Protein backbone atom coordinates (compact mmCIF):
# COMPACT_ATOMS: atom_id res chain seq x y z
CA UNK A 1 0.00 0.00 0.00
CA UNK A 2 1.38 3.41 -0.94
CA UNK A 3 -0.60 5.40 1.63
CA UNK A 4 2.12 6.20 4.13
CA UNK A 5 0.12 8.84 6.02
CA UNK A 6 -3.49 7.68 6.57
CA UNK A 7 -6.30 10.23 6.53
CA UNK A 8 -9.86 10.04 7.79
CA UNK A 9 -13.01 11.60 6.36
CA UNK A 10 -13.05 14.45 8.88
CA UNK A 11 -9.50 15.55 8.02
CA UNK A 12 -10.19 15.56 4.30
CA UNK A 13 -13.58 17.25 4.66
CA UNK A 14 -11.94 20.05 6.61
CA UNK A 15 -9.22 20.37 3.99
CA UNK A 16 -11.76 20.54 1.17
CA UNK A 17 -13.65 23.33 2.90
CA UNK A 18 -10.93 25.75 1.74
CA UNK A 19 -11.75 24.98 -1.90
CA UNK A 20 -14.80 25.44 -4.07
CA UNK A 21 -15.06 21.75 -4.96
CA UNK A 22 -18.13 20.51 -3.08
CA UNK A 23 -18.66 18.27 -0.06
CA UNK A 24 -16.79 15.02 0.56
CA UNK A 25 -18.76 11.86 -0.23
CA UNK A 26 -16.00 9.22 -0.56
CA UNK A 27 -12.29 8.85 0.33
CA UNK A 28 -10.13 6.05 -1.09
CA UNK A 29 -6.41 5.41 -0.68
CA UNK A 30 -4.49 4.64 -3.89
CA UNK A 31 -2.17 1.61 -3.65
CA UNK A 32 0.05 2.65 -6.58
CA UNK A 33 3.10 4.85 -6.06
CA UNK A 34 6.41 4.65 -4.27
CA UNK A 35 7.09 8.11 -2.81
CA UNK A 36 3.91 9.96 -1.83
CA UNK A 37 0.52 9.22 -0.28
CA UNK A 38 -2.30 9.52 -2.82
CA UNK A 39 -6.06 9.45 -2.34
CA UNK A 40 -9.03 9.49 -4.69
CA UNK A 41 -11.52 12.02 -3.36
CA UNK A 42 -15.14 12.13 -4.49
CA UNK A 43 -17.35 15.12 -3.71
CA UNK A 44 -20.94 15.81 -4.58
CA UNK A 45 -19.61 17.78 -7.57
CA UNK A 46 -16.47 16.16 -8.95
CA UNK A 47 -13.66 13.58 -8.79
CA UNK A 48 -10.32 14.69 -7.34
CA UNK A 49 -6.87 13.42 -6.41
CA UNK A 50 -5.21 14.43 -3.13
CA UNK A 51 -1.45 14.00 -2.77
CA UNK A 52 0.58 14.21 0.44
CA UNK A 53 4.33 14.62 -0.11
CA UNK A 54 6.26 12.22 2.06
CA UNK A 55 9.85 12.79 0.99
CA UNK A 56 12.00 14.93 -1.25
CA UNK A 57 12.85 18.60 -1.04
CA UNK A 58 9.62 20.27 0.04
CA UNK A 59 10.99 23.73 -0.69
CA UNK A 60 10.95 22.75 -4.37
CA UNK A 61 7.20 22.13 -4.43
CA UNK A 62 6.39 25.73 -5.51
CA UNK A 63 8.38 25.03 -8.69
CA UNK A 64 6.11 22.09 -9.52
CA UNK A 65 3.00 24.16 -8.85
CA UNK A 66 4.24 26.95 -11.12
CA UNK A 67 5.18 24.46 -13.85
CA UNK A 68 1.81 22.69 -13.77
CA UNK A 69 -0.04 26.00 -13.72
CA UNK A 70 1.98 27.14 -16.74
CA UNK A 71 1.36 23.95 -18.73
CA UNK A 72 -2.33 23.92 -17.83
CA UNK A 73 -2.68 27.52 -18.99
CA UNK A 74 -1.13 26.49 -22.32
CA UNK A 75 -3.66 23.65 -22.72
CA UNK A 76 -1.12 20.86 -22.31
CA UNK A 77 -2.96 17.73 -21.03
CA UNK A 78 -1.84 17.83 -17.41
CA UNK A 79 -3.71 18.00 -14.13
CA UNK A 80 -3.16 21.58 -12.99
CA UNK A 81 -3.34 21.93 -9.19
CA UNK A 82 -6.58 23.30 -7.78
CA UNK A 83 -6.24 26.63 -5.98
CA UNK A 84 -8.31 27.51 -2.94
CA UNK A 85 -10.63 30.51 -2.62
CA UNK A 86 -7.61 32.71 -1.87
CA UNK A 87 -5.68 31.53 -4.93
CA UNK A 88 -3.33 29.21 -2.99
CA UNK A 89 -2.65 25.66 -4.19
CA UNK A 90 0.00 24.32 -1.79
CA UNK A 91 -1.26 23.54 1.72
CA UNK A 92 -0.41 21.29 4.66
CA UNK A 93 -2.45 18.31 5.83
CA UNK A 94 -1.51 15.81 8.57
CA UNK A 95 1.89 17.47 8.81
CA UNK A 96 2.65 16.94 5.12
CA UNK A 97 2.61 19.33 2.14
CA UNK A 98 -0.57 18.67 0.17
CA UNK A 99 -1.92 19.40 -3.30
CA UNK A 100 -5.37 18.79 -4.75
CA UNK A 101 -5.86 17.94 -8.44
CA UNK A 102 -8.73 17.14 -10.78
CA UNK A 103 -8.89 13.41 -11.48
CA UNK A 104 -8.08 12.79 -15.13
CA UNK A 105 -9.77 10.02 -17.13
CA UNK A 106 -8.11 6.79 -18.11
CA UNK A 107 -5.59 4.19 -16.96
CA UNK A 108 -1.87 3.51 -17.42
CA UNK A 109 -1.07 1.77 -20.76
CA UNK A 110 0.97 -1.31 -19.84
CA UNK A 111 1.58 -2.13 -23.52
CA UNK A 112 1.15 1.09 -25.53
CA UNK A 113 0.12 0.71 -29.14
CA UNK A 114 1.10 2.87 -32.10
CA UNK A 115 -1.87 5.22 -31.72
CA UNK A 116 -1.10 5.82 -28.05
CA UNK A 117 2.56 6.43 -28.87
CA UNK A 118 1.53 8.96 -31.50
CA UNK A 119 -0.72 10.77 -29.01
CA UNK A 120 2.03 10.88 -26.39
CA UNK A 121 4.59 12.13 -28.93
CA UNK A 122 2.33 14.98 -29.99
CA UNK A 123 1.62 16.00 -26.39
CA UNK A 124 5.30 15.88 -25.44
CA UNK A 125 6.25 17.90 -28.51
CA UNK A 126 3.66 20.53 -27.63
CA UNK A 127 4.83 20.56 -24.04
CA UNK A 128 8.48 21.05 -24.99
CA UNK A 129 7.60 23.75 -27.51
CA UNK A 130 5.82 25.86 -24.90
CA UNK A 131 8.02 24.89 -21.95
CA UNK A 132 10.97 26.70 -23.53
CA UNK A 133 9.19 29.89 -22.41
CA UNK A 134 8.62 28.76 -18.81
CA UNK A 135 10.31 31.19 -16.43
CA UNK A 136 10.98 28.81 -13.52
CA UNK A 137 14.30 27.08 -12.96
CA UNK A 138 15.26 23.83 -11.28
CA UNK A 139 18.49 22.18 -12.48
CA UNK A 140 18.15 18.62 -13.74
CA UNK A 141 19.07 16.50 -10.68
CA UNK A 142 19.97 13.46 -12.82
CA UNK A 143 22.12 14.95 -15.56
CA UNK A 144 25.71 14.16 -16.53
CA UNK A 145 27.03 15.92 -13.42
CA UNK A 146 25.01 13.56 -11.21
CA UNK A 147 26.12 10.53 -13.22
CA UNK A 148 29.75 11.55 -12.87
CA UNK A 149 29.48 12.15 -9.12
CA UNK A 150 27.32 9.16 -8.16
CA UNK A 151 28.39 6.21 -10.28
CA UNK A 152 31.43 5.58 -8.07
CA UNK A 153 29.10 4.60 -5.21
CA UNK A 154 27.87 1.45 -6.94
CA UNK A 155 31.04 0.21 -8.66
CA UNK A 156 31.98 -2.09 -5.77
CA UNK A 157 28.70 -3.99 -6.27
CA UNK A 158 29.27 -4.59 -9.99
CA UNK A 159 31.25 -7.15 -11.96
CA UNK A 160 34.54 -5.92 -13.45
CA UNK A 161 32.85 -5.87 -16.88
CA UNK A 162 29.99 -3.69 -15.63
CA UNK A 163 32.38 -1.41 -13.77
CA UNK A 164 34.26 -0.78 -17.00
CA UNK A 165 31.01 -0.34 -18.92
CA UNK A 166 29.72 2.30 -16.52
CA UNK A 167 33.00 4.21 -16.27
CA UNK A 168 33.57 4.16 -20.03
CA UNK A 169 30.05 5.40 -20.70
CA UNK A 170 30.30 8.30 -18.24
CA UNK A 171 33.62 9.32 -19.79
CA UNK A 172 32.10 9.19 -23.27
CA UNK A 173 29.11 11.34 -22.28
CA UNK A 174 31.31 13.96 -20.63
CA UNK A 175 33.61 14.23 -23.64
CA UNK A 176 30.75 14.48 -26.13
CA UNK A 177 28.64 16.98 -24.19
CA UNK A 178 31.55 19.23 -23.28
CA UNK A 179 32.54 19.65 -26.94
CA UNK A 180 29.00 19.97 -28.37
CA UNK A 181 26.97 23.07 -29.06
CA UNK A 182 24.43 23.86 -26.30
CA UNK A 183 21.21 21.89 -26.58
CA UNK A 184 17.73 23.50 -26.52
CA UNK A 185 16.55 24.00 -22.95
CA UNK A 186 13.14 24.01 -21.32
CA UNK A 187 11.00 22.48 -18.62
CA UNK A 188 11.08 18.67 -18.50
CA UNK A 189 8.81 16.04 -17.01
CA UNK A 190 11.92 14.08 -16.05
CA UNK A 191 10.25 10.68 -15.58
CA UNK A 192 7.68 10.23 -18.34
CA UNK A 193 7.23 6.49 -18.19
CA UNK A 194 3.97 4.95 -19.37
CA UNK A 195 2.72 4.74 -15.76
CA UNK A 196 2.88 8.52 -15.58
CA UNK A 197 0.22 8.84 -18.27
CA UNK A 198 -3.49 8.07 -18.39
CA UNK A 199 -5.24 6.85 -21.53
CA UNK A 200 -8.96 6.52 -22.08
CA UNK A 201 -8.77 3.98 -24.89
CA UNK A 202 -6.67 5.61 -27.59
CA UNK A 203 -7.16 9.12 -26.19
CA UNK A 204 -4.52 10.63 -23.91
CA UNK A 205 -6.34 11.60 -20.72
CA UNK A 206 -3.30 13.33 -19.28
CA UNK A 207 0.32 13.37 -18.16
CA UNK A 208 0.75 13.09 -14.38
CA UNK A 209 3.36 13.03 -11.60
CA UNK A 210 5.69 15.90 -12.44
CA UNK A 211 7.69 15.52 -9.22
CA UNK A 212 10.91 14.85 -11.12
CA UNK A 213 10.20 17.97 -13.16
CA UNK A 214 13.14 20.27 -13.80
CA UNK A 215 14.71 22.45 -16.46
CA UNK A 216 17.39 21.23 -18.81
CA UNK A 217 18.03 19.51 -22.13
CA UNK A 218 14.74 18.77 -23.89
CA UNK A 219 16.49 15.88 -25.65
CA UNK A 220 17.03 14.21 -22.25
CA UNK A 221 13.26 14.08 -21.68
CA UNK A 222 12.58 12.70 -25.14
CA UNK A 223 15.19 9.95 -24.74
CA UNK A 224 13.63 8.81 -21.46
CA UNK A 225 10.30 8.46 -23.24
CA UNK A 226 11.66 6.48 -26.19
CA UNK A 227 13.59 4.11 -23.91
CA UNK A 228 10.37 3.23 -22.08
CA UNK A 229 7.62 3.57 -24.69
CA UNK A 230 9.39 2.08 -27.70
CA UNK A 231 11.51 -0.71 -26.21
CA UNK A 232 10.82 -4.45 -26.08
CA UNK A 233 11.62 -6.87 -23.25
CA UNK A 234 15.12 -7.47 -24.64
CA UNK A 235 15.91 -3.75 -24.58
CA UNK A 236 15.75 -3.28 -28.36
CA UNK A 237 13.83 -0.46 -30.00
CA UNK A 238 10.49 -1.28 -31.63
CA UNK A 239 10.43 0.57 -34.96
CA UNK A 240 6.65 1.05 -35.24
CA UNK A 241 6.25 2.65 -31.81
CA UNK A 242 9.54 4.56 -32.12
CA UNK A 243 8.56 6.09 -35.47
CA UNK A 244 4.97 6.91 -34.47
CA UNK A 245 6.06 8.72 -31.34
CA UNK A 246 8.93 10.62 -32.93
CA UNK A 247 7.01 11.61 -36.06
CA UNK A 248 4.30 13.17 -33.89
CA UNK A 249 6.87 14.85 -31.64
CA UNK A 250 8.97 16.27 -34.47
CA UNK A 251 5.88 17.73 -36.14
CA UNK A 252 5.58 19.93 -33.03
CA UNK A 253 9.27 20.56 -32.26
CA UNK A 254 12.02 19.74 -34.76
CA UNK A 255 15.43 18.74 -33.45
CA UNK A 256 18.50 20.84 -34.08
CA UNK A 257 21.48 19.40 -35.94
CA UNK A 258 23.32 18.99 -32.62
CA UNK A 259 20.37 17.17 -31.08
CA UNK A 260 20.25 14.77 -34.01
CA UNK A 261 23.98 14.15 -33.70
CA UNK A 262 23.76 13.47 -29.96
CA UNK A 263 20.55 11.42 -30.10
CA UNK A 264 22.19 7.95 -29.92
CA UNK A 265 24.34 9.09 -27.02
CA UNK A 266 21.35 10.57 -25.15
CA UNK A 267 19.49 7.26 -25.42
CA UNK A 268 22.46 5.59 -23.74
CA UNK A 269 22.87 8.34 -21.14
CA UNK A 270 19.25 8.12 -19.98
CA UNK A 271 19.44 4.32 -19.88
CA UNK A 272 22.47 4.61 -17.62
CA UNK A 273 20.67 7.23 -15.55
CA UNK A 274 17.99 4.67 -14.58
CA UNK A 275 20.39 1.76 -14.25
CA UNK A 276 22.42 3.83 -11.79
CA UNK A 277 19.47 5.29 -9.85
CA UNK A 278 18.00 1.82 -9.37
CA UNK A 279 21.36 0.40 -8.27
CA UNK A 280 21.63 3.20 -5.72
CA UNK A 281 18.22 2.29 -4.29
CA UNK A 282 19.15 -1.39 -4.06
CA UNK A 283 22.64 -1.04 -2.60
CA UNK A 284 23.21 2.44 -1.20
CA UNK A 285 20.03 4.31 -0.30
CA UNK A 286 17.04 1.95 0.15
CA UNK A 287 13.55 3.49 0.19
CA UNK A 288 12.23 4.87 3.45
CA UNK A 289 9.12 2.70 3.14
CA UNK A 290 8.75 -1.07 2.78
CA UNK A 291 8.62 -1.18 -1.01
CA UNK A 292 10.23 -3.43 -3.61
CA UNK A 293 12.80 -1.46 -5.64
CA UNK A 294 12.63 -1.46 -9.43
CA UNK A 295 14.94 -3.92 -11.16
CA UNK A 296 18.20 -2.25 -12.30
CA UNK A 297 18.79 -5.03 -14.85
CA UNK A 298 16.06 -3.67 -17.13
CA UNK A 299 18.07 -0.56 -17.94
CA UNK A 300 21.36 -2.39 -18.11
CA UNK A 301 19.78 -4.44 -20.92
CA UNK A 302 18.58 -1.27 -22.63
CA UNK A 303 22.04 0.31 -22.42
CA UNK A 304 23.70 -2.81 -23.86
CA UNK A 305 21.12 -2.93 -26.65
CA UNK A 306 21.78 0.73 -27.54
CA UNK A 307 25.51 0.03 -27.65
CA UNK A 308 25.11 -3.10 -29.79
CA UNK A 309 22.39 -1.95 -32.18
CA UNK A 310 22.61 1.84 -32.03
CA UNK A 311 19.65 4.14 -32.55
CA UNK A 312 17.01 3.80 -35.24
CA UNK A 313 16.99 6.54 -37.91
CA UNK A 314 15.19 9.69 -36.84
CA UNK A 315 12.16 10.56 -38.99
CA UNK A 316 12.64 13.49 -41.35
CA UNK A 317 9.54 15.49 -40.46
CA UNK A 318 8.79 19.15 -40.98
CA UNK A 319 7.37 21.00 -37.99
CA UNK A 320 3.85 22.36 -38.20
CA UNK A 321 3.53 26.03 -39.25
Automatic annotation (TrEMBL):
Biological-process GO terms, alphabetical: threonine biosynthetic process
Residue ranges annotated for the Aminoglycoside phosphotransferase domain, each copy included: 27-254
Any GO molecular function: homoserine kinase activity
Highest taxon in the source lineage: Bacteria
Reactions mediated catalytically: L-homoserine + ATP = O-phospho-L-homoserine + ADP + H(+)
Pfam families reported in the protein's UniProt record: APH
Pathway the protein acts in: Amino-acid biosynthesis; L-threonine biosynthesis; L-threonine from L-aspartate: step 4/5
Keywords, comma-separated and alphabetical: Amino-acid biosynthesis, ATP-binding, Kinase, Nucleotide-binding, Threonine biosynthesis, Transferase
Keyword Kinase assigned: yes
EC number: 2.7.1.39
Statement: the UniProt record of this protein carries the keyword ATP-binding: yes
Family stated for the protein in its record: Belongs to the pseudomonas-type ThrB family.
UniProt-recorded name of the protein: Homoserine kinase
Record organism: Halomonas sp. RT37
Annotated gene: thrB
